[in-house]
Amino acid sequence: IWGEMSDSFVPIKNIERELICPICKELFTHPLILPCQHSVCHKCVRELLMLSHDDSFDAGSECSMPGSPRSRVPSPSMERLDRLVRSGGSRGSMSSPGWRRNSVTPRVTAIPCPGCQHDIELGERGISMLFRNFTLENIVERYRQAARAAVAIMCNVCKPPLPPQEATKSCMDCKASYCNECFKLNHPWGTPKAQHEYVGPTTNFRPKVLMCPEHEMEKVNMYCEVCRRPVCHLCKLGGSHANHKVTSMSSAYKILKEKLAKSIHYLISKEDQVRTQISDLDVLIKQTEENGQLSEREAIAHFDRLFETLQERKTEMLRSIDQSRNRRLDQLKGQVEEYQGMLENSGLVGYAQEVLKETDQSCFVQTAKQLHVRIQRATESLRTFHPASNPCFDEFVLDTSKEEMLLKEMCFGGVPDPPLIDLSRSRVYNEATICWRLSDDHIATDHQLLEYRRLAICRDGVDSGSWRTTERVYGASTVVCDLEPDSLYAFRVRSCRSSMYSPYSPEVTFHTPPAPAFGFLFNDKCGFSAERLVLSKRRDSVESQAGMAFLLASERVQTGSYIGLDYIIGDMGITQGRHFWAFRVEAHSYMVKVGVASDTKLLEWFHNPRDTSSPRYDQDSGHDSGSEDACYELSQPFTLLTLGMGKLFIPKASASSVSSSSALVSTAASERVLPMPQRVGVCLDYDAGRVYFYDADTMRCLYERQVECSGTMYPAFGLMGGGRVHLEDFITAKRLTF
Question: Do residues 583 and 731 lie in contact, with contact meaning Cβ atoms separated by under 8 Å?
């Protein structure tokens, strides 16, 4: 691989963006590696601590005081940086800003990582727990040298009056650069200096050996595969990595170097493909720009048409209001003139008074007839007064609430993207908890709809039932109830936004357990050893710590005596029916036994130390992983299966105990060692007297055997050495709620 890559290395001038700190946006200066594997400048980490906890510490006042220890610390040089970093906790200059030894303020060392945005807990020692990234420092230095190729590194030893010559070598032990002549004079053959390590001209003199930040005097010589970081032998023996799987530094170096070389070779071999994809992306960018502009023009046209329609309706309505107003005003004004004629000084009353003066009867009757009709009409209008027109314009009041709602519900985001069902978080028992991840669309969806159906396997294939839909879900998960046991179900989900539905998510299938879920927590009363087992506050997790018990029993181990399992059972028992429960065993666990126990024999077992003997560490038993599970005496209350160190061990007697229908077990029975499942399931059929062990993710039966069910049967666990067992949330949910 290296031979093929030798002519394909990327020029160092092209990697500048990989060498820029995500905080200060400049080339890295003394970079530190955070626990999340991102690198940040040392000074930037300090500034992050100051910004994150400025209100928790009096850093400003302390830094501003002339006598402050921090004010006297100059800018750290490369030679002193490691010493300053490791001593930061005591001097208060490099770890948590503003913290003082006698301060009553608690020391907080959590910062947000600028690379992945996760909160990073630095621990009690703060920055002093972080490694320096020497590899990145060297790359940055080489980049600086390439950037200033015209400026040569001069010899540090040449003495005047001769001008200093250009350096050709730099000694990592002397931390100085030399020309050829000065190097020969200062590193003569046959002296210890001749064994010094020298490199090309450089100004970056890093320590020769990477030291452990937790144990300052110890060299880093191992690699923790759990934490993915270098550790020393003290970290493995009694530190925070005691129960973790570690490997030698040379092995980790070889493996990681091969992986990195293969990855680089793969990227280089796919250069043409990358260029093609970049061209495709450029076309997509152009199309996106053109389609975006087209959508803008279409949106403007649509709204212009809406505005024109609204303007037309507005003009027509204003014209109707004006006509109605003029007509009503004319009617009211005519009524005013009519009523003014009734007044005493008006023409009608005066005219009637003059007519009354007429003495000729025939002439009076002729004139007064018409006048009497007018007077009667005026008198009647006084008795029943009604305005000639209504001043209200209620008929022109508009109710535009529906139109406004329609305008607000106008969908401009198009069809939403479908969500994706999250297999790692979804769990299916007799009830299913289905979780999904919503699309990254910035426009929120209104709700989601989950559909599911039962798949029946027949001779002709899979017979699918009809889809059933849940109620609207306003979130990213829901619970489906009343699922049939030992059945295959398919699930899919889609989103809705403004009455527009997304496509369905890809279908996922889950196999329900063979029995309803049995809920319980760990029992901290019966036989629980608080000295060697650590139980969580919720009693849903138990951990066995390999510590003093093993050290004190070291002599007995040497002579072949027994080291005991620490047992713990569930706080709920089974007296009838079929029940299923699931749990997770940590991969680093040394040995964990899982199964069931009978209460009729538990008390005698826990109170009689002789009954706890096991052939596993008996000199005459011949330890053979898991073999003792098949030859338990009838008096023993436990029926258990052994897991440990990432493996599951099938007992020797499994050939007679496993049903012939289990193809998986029958083929694997000869090997007797299977990979440990991510989640383990146990099913107890009390009435039939059988216990089954499953891979809880696929619901494949790994092992089954006969068990004597007498009295009450309890879920049982045994732990030896470092190990941890977590009960599934669905198993503990009802008990925790209760």
Answer: yes
For the chain, count helices (H), then strands (E): 20, 34
Neighbouring residues of 50: CB distance < 8 A, sequence distance ≥ 6: 59, 97, 98
Backbone phi, psi, residue 60, to 5°: -65, -45
3-state secondary structure of 406: helix
Measure the CA–CA gap between 253 and 613, rounded to whole angstroms.
44
Secondary structure (3-state) at 177: strand
**Farthest-apart Cα atoms in the chain, separation:** 168
Per-10-residue mean pLDDT, the chain, length 738: 45 68 82 82 78 46 36 38 42 39 47 74 70 80 67 79 81 84 84 80 68 78 83 78 83 86 86 88 91 87 88 89 89 80 64 80 81 77 72 78 74 74 89 88 81 78 78 91 90 86 90 92 84 88 74 56 75 92 91 90 65 38 41 62 89 51 43 87 94 92 89 90 88 76
The count of other CB atoms within 10 Å of the CB of residue 378 is 15
The sign of the dihedral angle between the CA atoms of 565, 571, 576, 580 is negative
Q: Are 688 and 579 in contact (CB under 8 A)?
A: no
Q: The tokens of 343 are what?
A: 């007044």
pTM to 2 decimal places? 0.47
Report the C-alpha gap between 144 and 518 in whole angstroms. Answer: 64
- Would you call 367 exposed, middle or buried from its count of C-beta atoms within 10 A (0-12, 13-18, 19+)? middle
Measured from the Cβ of residue 138, the count of other Cβ atoms closer than 10 Å reads 14
**DSSP states of 249-306:** HHHHHHHHHHHHHHHHHHHHHTHHHHHHHHHHHHHHHHHHHHHHHHHHHHHHHHHHHH
